């Protein structure tokens, strides 16, 4: 049984609530094309394949006391291609495969909206869907992370835009999934106050995370 709930139509699942409410630096990851192989409108558990380095990155964060959230746009739901039940089945499979690698995700946020299909599209719906900051903010609240000291990892330009809109410390843009296509644009979002680094994959991302998140003063 899934453990989360719908909040304003988005799925928020806080799986490992921490006892302390003290805010710490954390990691927010995209799902499709970042931690799992990109499949268009992924909704079948048998098509879930973790990308290389996903379990290692998340396990290291777990071991270092860094909460890990996953934020995923799932417009396939409002487009009618699949339902929440399919989404939960895929999530269970992602969690199962990560567990085999000793890794746990602390919280998941999923947004079913899309401006082309979601009725009564407005600013508050747009806030939830990446590039809006809504899912990152909801995760930050749920898993007690301080976004200003946290990092995002994603393959799409919208993952990086959402991180910037959430005032995160920085983002790592991976070349998996849609990464190649968005590389230049993603890096152009970087500034003195919002660092953006390129990484070929999650193994490379882990080195950057280690430097800026684990070793940060
Ligand atoms: Mg993606």
Question: What topology emerges from the helices and strands here?
Answer:
Blueprint: E1 5-7, E2 10-14, E3 27-29, H1 54-63, E4 68-73, H2 75-78, H3 84-100, E5 107-111, H4 123-128, H5 134-143, E6 151-154, H6 157-165, E7 170-174, H7 179-187, E8 195-199, H8 202-214
Parallel strand pairs: 3-4, 3-6, 4-5, 6-7, 7-8
Antiparallel strand pairs: 1-2, 2-5
Helix pairs in contact: 1-8
Bound molecules: magnesium ion (MG).
Structure, explained:
This protein has helices at 54-63, 75-78, 84-100, 123-128, 134-143, 157-165, 179-187, 202-214, and strands spanning 5-7, 10-14, 27-29, 68-73, 107-111, 151-154, 170-174, 195-199. The chain contains 8 helices and 8 strands. It has an 8-stranded mixed beta sheet with strand order 1-2-5-4-3-6-7-8, sandwiched between helices. Strand 6 (151-154), helix 6 (157-165) and strand 7 (170-174) form a beta-alpha-beta unit. The mean pLDDT is 95. It is of the alpha/beta class and 217 residues long. The termini are far apart. It has a domain at 5-17 and 24-152: Rossmann fold, CATH 3.40.50. The chain is globular, with a radius of gyration of 16 Å. Magnesium ion (MG) is lined by residues 30, 32-34, 154-156, 177.
Descriptive keywords:
alpha/beta, Rossmann fold, 8 helices, 36% helix, globular, binds magnesium ion
